[in-house]
Each structure stands twice: as structure tokens, then as C-alpha cells.
Amino acid sequence: MPLIILLPVLLLLVAQGLTPELALFQLLPFPQTSYLALISVLLLALLLRQTEWLYWLGILATHYWLASSTNLTATEFANSLPLLSASLLLLLALIPKPSPFKLNGLLLLISPPLLLLLSQQLPLATWLASAQLPAIVFQPVLAASPINWLSAWWFSILAGIWLIAINLKPPKAANWGEFGLLLALLLSTVIPPGTAVANWTLVAACLSVFLALAFQMLHLAYIDELTQLPQRRALMAHLNRLGRNSAICMLDVDHFKKFNDTYGHDVGDQVLKLLGSILSKVKGLTAYRYGGEEFTLVFGHNKKALLEEKLEEVRLAVAEYPLVIRNDNRPKDSSSGKKARGSSGAEKTVNVTISLGCCVKQKGETPMQLLKRADEALYAAKKAGRNTFVLKI
Ligand SMILES: Nc1nc2c(ncn2[C@@H]2O[C@H](COP(=O)(O)OP(=O)(O)OP(=O)(O)O)[C@@H](O)[C@H]2O)c(=O)[nH]1
């Protein structure tokens, strides 16, 4: 997924590196296409209520204006703007989910004009030059460019920090879109102003944002927020294209009502989250949250011995996982849960068990018929005493 989001910008980087005079760069009417791209993504972000993109688009538009402007040559203003925009991007990275209706978003909104004012008042480039840094730091990247290596380096460092940050947390489409935008901005700091590439940089960045928005929406539509597993809509899509040799399994937590009543709904939610984390790590199957405390596993084969082995592996993985029930934050996923087991703040350790009902797909069977039979197998597992599996071949 990340590569697809970054693809427009990466392709542009390669094309620009190989042949800056590429005929493709002359293909579309500019600046009309740039404005159209910017306005389309802006409207899409507004429509999908992804307001944090507005800031990014604002910075992108400012850069575009700077990069496509031919009368801004080597001024203080032109020298400091990329640097200050980079600072703004860093602010944006540090402020999670800015909203124009909250203080963090308002601060971000007024920072570009403030930074612009500052950049005119403070001779940043002169100051930095007097710091006796090596000359290359201040040389314009290209003869015609008012922008120097310092900006490019600053952006590269920022892009590096961004990449590390993305890889430390579970990467989201939005992060990769932001990274694509960052790369496009990096490119716009090193190209000569007023060239066709400046226009294409903006279009490529807009495409990256567009793809990121599409992935964000797909995620919202298909991924269950609590367990982070794909949910029923995704399961039905999978079942509709299921091969002849396959099997599915319905599973649910045993006596979950009692568990909720004893420990509270919040702890119950943590159990489901943990279950999602455990199931997502089991190899050789795809796990879905069917709804409530029910999950569905889909297998791409119908081999009895292999299925039995996998069902037992899943059953054991859950039954042997000690859950630490505490007053404060409970484990967010299976790895943090393991750490929590050793800590002294634990009040009580409990185990939950699951029952599993599995059946092999029959010839001509519809998804609903298959699900119904798996449900019957699950019922049989419950009747057989729970914490077990029933496999119907
Ligand atoms: N915490 C939490 N509970 C849920 C969620 N969805 C469903 N439940 C609870 O799951 C329980 C399911 O109860 P039952 O269907 O009676 O089954 P059970 O108590 O698990 O008993 P058996 O399935 O027969 O072993 C209900 O109490 C629901 O409120 C959820 O998202 N979070």
C-alpha cells in the first residue's frame, strides 16, 4: 500500500532525475491543471471531513506559488520560506489531528502568515551565513534557483525523521500520503522556479494525497476499529470469491456475557481487542470480526489434518494467554500484554476460552449457506462443553 501512495511522487523524482526535459512535462496546460488538482483534493478532503489535510495542502500551495514564480530571485524571503515551511511541517507532525475548530488547529492556521512575517523581519539566511557554515550549505542548488542546499538538507532530515516515526507506530495510509507530500516539497525546493517540473510536483503531490484519502476511506469501510481486523463487509467480499478448496470457521468467546457482567464492558472490549491481535498473528488463515464477540477464520484449503492442527493452535493460543485485569490501562495488544504480565500493578490474572466451528466448502454452496453451516458447527462445539472445536468435512 505505501508504495502505491508514494508512486506518483517517486515516478516524478525518477523522471526528473533521468530527463528533466521529458515531453510528458509539456503535456498538460499549466497552471490550470495545478489549480484543478489542488482544488479537487481540497474539496475531497473537506467532503470526507479529513481536515488535517487542509494544512498540508496550504503548505503545498505556498510552495507551488514560490516554485512557479519567476520574479522571486534570491531574496531573503525566498531563501527562508522553505525553511520556515519545514518547521511548520514539523509542527504538523507533532500535533495529532489538528482541527480548525480547536486551539491546536487555530495555532497551525495562523502560523503560516506569522512565519511569513517573521521571514521578512528576520534575515535568516544572512544569520546562517555568518555562522560560518561551509559554503556549499548556501549555494543555490541550481543556478536559476533561489533555493539553497540548506533547505534541501533540512527537508531531507525531516523526511528521515518522518520515515522513522512512521515505522515506529503502525503505519497508516495518511502517514504515507504525508510522506509523499514531503518528498514533493523536497523536490520543489531544489528545482528551478517557473519550470514545468514545479507544476508536475504539485500534481504528483495531489495524487499522493488523493490515494492516501482513498486508502483512509477504505480502511474506515473495511477495518473494525476495536480489533483492527477486517470486518463483515470485507468477509463477505472474500467469501464471494472463495475458491473451491477452502474452509471457514466461526468462533466466539465462551460465557462472554458472564465475563462482561463480572469485569465490566470495558474489560470485555480489551479481551476482544486482544483476541483480534492474537488471531491476526496466526499464519495460514485470514481472520475477520464477524460482529459482537464472533470472529470468522477463512482458510485457503480444505485439508482435514491441517485444519485440525490450526484450529487447535488458535484455541490454545487464546486459552493459554493470561489476561491481566488491572485498574489502570489494560494491555493494548498481545505483545504489551506479555510485558504487563510481569509488572507488579496487576490485580488479577484470568483466562478466556473460545469455541470454534469449522466446515469445508461444498460444491455450489453460497456464502450464506457456508456461514450457516459453520455456525451450526460452532453450536455443536458449545454443546460439547466449550473450549473446543468441531470440524465438519
Ligand atoms: N464488551 C463487549 N461485549 C460484547 C460486544 N459485542 C457483544 N458483546 C457481548 O457478548 C455477549 C454474548 O453473550 P451470549 O451470546 O449470550 O453468549 P455467551 O455469554 O458468550 O455464552 P456462550 O456463547 O454460549 O458461551 C453479550 O453479553 C454481549 O453484550 C462488544 O463489542 N464488547
UniProtKB/TrEMBL annotation:
UniProt key word Repeat: no
InterPro entries assigned to the protein according to its UniProt record, in alphabetical order: Diguanylate_Cyclase, GGDEF_dom, Nucleotide_cyclase, Rev_trsase/Diguanyl_cyclase
PROSITE patterns in alphabetical order: GGDEF (PS50887)
Entry EC number(s): 2.7.7.65
Keyword check for Ribosomal protein: no
Transmembrane segments: 27-48, 77-95, 149-166, 173-191, 197-223
Reactions that this protein is recorded to catalyse: 2 GTP = 3',3'-c-di-GMP + 2 diphosphate
One GO BP annotation of this record: negative regulation of bacterial-type flagellum-dependent cell motility
Listed Gene3D superfamilies: 3.30.70.270
Domain of life the protein comes from: Bacteria
Keywords: Membrane, Transmembrane, Transmembrane helix
UniProt domain GGDEF: residue ranges: 244-393
GO molecular function: diguanylate cyclase activity
Database matches in PANTHER family: DIGUANYLATE CYCLASE DGCM-RELATED (PTHR45138:SF9), REGULATORY COMPONENTS OF SENSORY TRANSDUCTION SYSTEM (PTHR45138)
Protein name, as recorded: diguanylate cyclase
Lineage: Bacteria, Pseudomonadati, Pseudomonadota, Gammaproteobacteria, Alteromonadales
